[in-house]
Amino acid sequence: MNADAFLAAVKGKLIVSCQALEDEPLHGPSIMAKMATAAKIGGAAAIRANSPADIRAIKEAVDLPVIGLYKRGGSGVFITPTFDDAAAIAEAGADIIALDCTDRQRPDGVCLRDLLMRIHDEIGKPTFADVSALEEAQAAAEYGVAMAGPTLSGYIDGPPESAEPDYALLGAMISALPIPVIAEGRIHSPGQARQALDIGAWAVVVGSAITRPRTITARFVSALRDGNPC
Fold first, then answer.
1. Which structural domain, as residue segments, surrounds residue 65?
2. How many domains does the chain contain in total?
3. What is the pTM of this model?
4. What are the phi and psi torsion angles at 98 (to 5°)?
5. What is the CATH number of the domain that holds 137?
6. What is the pLDDT of residues 144-160, one digit of tens each?
7. What is the average pLDDT score of the chain?
């Protein structure tokens, strides 16, 4: 699937992020495949998924396009940090390759421009830039990414200060970039997702609020204990 076909398929729609890390009860390809199936039945237009194993299982279970990523480690640049990681998720069936496009140093020392050039030349799949700032998004767009999202806003130097989506960065990216911007990050409710579209987002990615029962439960517990509705 090329970028134009993917973007047409998700325009104005919901992309569900089906991910569970190793310390979570729902971790495992078969469970993520069932989660993706439930998301499709609910009307999701695409899936975002982590690791070759999960991507392969999801592609076998549903016929939706998949934004693939590969989380390696837990700090620094860990979302698809290297070419080999991008190649692995492409081989597993990812239609779009998502990767950290912040200005931080990558673990193998390869600069982002060279990495994106190699992905585009040798793998030939569209890329999705996960960024934390407008300047990072602009650089990634210059390097040929097909789409970008404020996925990493607030997460670079520790937990985000706000539980709300970064609508300011989203709006700035939409205004400044020549490529579609997909809203992602801390979108907890249908109203917040709708607001992202109203601002001008091409599509909306929602993950934890749909596919992570542990996180959802903790939010309810916090609201009952502390009076915090977030």
1. 3-226
2. 1
3. 0.95
4. -95, 140
5. 3.20.20.70
6. 999 999 999 998 876 77
7. 95
